[in-house]
Sequence to fold (252 residues):
Amino acid sequence: MNYVVLTLFPDMIRECMSTSITGRAISNGCLSLNVIDIRDFSKDKHLHVDDYPYGGGAGMVMMADPVYCACEHARSLCKDKKGHIIFMTPSGRRFDQNIAKELSEYDDLIFLCGHYEGIDERVIELEADDSISIGDYVLTGGELPAAVIMDAVSRMVPGVLSNDMSACEESFEDNLLEYPQYTRPEVFMDKRVPEVLLSGHHANIAEWRRQQSLERTAKFRPDLLSKADLSKKDMEYLKKNRLIIEQDNINN
Ligand code: ADE
Fold:
């Protein structure tokens, strides 16, 4: 996977991506990262990239020309000189695990990060292949959202996670939240690790983990339960524990 990021704050992206798992994946060649400073494409002697909005209003707008030239340069770095330009904006489609999977199929992803009050709409119309939001809140720029998406997509790129790590990923695809994890010591501040996890009984452990996932999902994300693949046993557990009233997506 080749990532290209168009930004006015290249260090934000480099800092985020150079640590931990993504940093290692860049070093070993599973990922590549090109960070392009949009300011390098300013034709102004003071390197301006923003101007006042037509029609008035607060803040500044990023000008079309430097952003357009940066986009064209980014495409030239991609396979077949194409790439897939994603404009980071709170007005885009909302990011989730399914979109992460969809994006992981591309050879090259180009992230266009806006700042200030936004980017001249004409360049978005000309260049953006996709517009994505990471949630219903407004950040100061698209850099953190781009880093969030690169992180989630990178986990799906072959070789980025070690084999035993990649198994954990299945959970969100089931539309259930992850069960809790524990490690040594057995007792911490008078709190014991749940007994079943010390039993060595794999079937009981699996059942307990499933129940924990169901409980957490019912408590924190009841909206997901209606999309989850629930067995009769799951439904019985949810009803018995008053975690659910009625549900019609029962399988087997
Ligand atoms: N830029 C500012 N806020 C954003 C958000 N929530 N998602 C994507 N890009 C953004």
